[in-house]
Design brief:
It is built from 8 helices and 10 strands. The protein is globular, with a radius of gyration of 19 Å.
Length: 263
């Protein structure tokens, strides 16, 4: 049986005055898949994903969710289609603990308006136990958590509220080796649940390690989408820097692979 995409973005365009930030880009995402969205600074990758997240409005093109056209004008619309975004800043309240952050803006309350704190903590423990069984700091403000633990809280919030599509913005940026490994394990767990992930990144090492496919953008256009199993880091860098799709059967050498700041 042929799988159907969770999300299809077809011929998406967006301009700011005379600047074409996104030009006729088409990408898709399947259940249990991670698609890396790559490109140098200003390539248009973040603008494309912000359109799906409802933070920017497309000028042209169509978005389909489960095969049906989706009208996404703001982040609330995106959430109604079970699309959640985890930005690099994570949007966590540093002075609150994991449970308070999980339910931030969607708190459970009694008929008298008071918070159902015990129930929120119990639900937080349940979801964290499934995603990150080693998480123990439930009472600590998230400001005191490590980078990987903070990612766990942000991901748990999205999953608890039934996200089927996650947009993750450089989830391993500024993390150490162990924290990066933890985030990789979280992503594998999300994949096993059938959640589709768009991963915005500039680190080719991470994309090759975490992603099933990579969609590369340059100057607002889509250079191409490739299976990471079929290409090398060198191939991806050529796509990013030169805007050139890899030759069929290419076997470029593996190279050091961060493209942040490439103009």
């Amino acid at each position: 049986m042929t799988r159907s995409p969770l999300v299809e973005m077809q011929d998406i365009s967006l301009s700011f005055g005379g600047i074409h930030a996104v030009r006729g880009v088409s990408v898709d995402l399947y259940p249990g898949e991670v698609v890396g969205v790559l490109g140098h600074n200003g390539a248009g990758k973040s603008c494309l994903m912000k359109i799906l997240a409802g933070a920017l409005h497309k000028d042209e093109g169509t978005i389909r969710v489960d095969g049906e056209e989706a009208k996404i004008a703001n982040p609330r619309d995106a959430r109604s289609y079970n699309i959640e975004t985890i930005y690099q800043t994570l949007a966590l309240a540093d002075n609150l603990n994991a449970a308070a952050n999980l339910f931030l803006g969607r708190e459970l309350r009694t008929p008298f308006g008071t918070l159902r704190r015990a129930e929120m903590e119990e639900e937080t423990r349940k979801i964290m136990n499934r995603l990150n069984p080693n998480f123990r700091k439930f009472s600590a403000p998230v400001a005191h958590l490590s980078g990987g633990q903070r990612q766990s809280v942000a991901i748990a919030r999205a999953v608890y509220f039934n996200a089927r599509v996650l947009i993750m913005d450089e989830p391993t940026a500024a993390l150490g080796v162990e924290e990066t490994r933890m985030v990789g394990e979280l992503i594998e767990e999300l994949k096993s649940r059938g959640i589709g992930i768009f991963l915005i990144d500039h680190d080719v090492h991470q994309v090759m390690r975490l992603c099933d496919r990579a969609s590369v953008m340059k100057n607002g256009k889509l250079v191409g989408t490739v299976r990471t199993a079929d290409v090398t880091e060198d191939d991806l860098l050529e796509m990013i820097i030169l805007g050139k799709s890899p030759a069929k059967g290419s076997a470029g050498a593996r190279v050091g692979a961060t493209v942040e700041g490439i103009a």
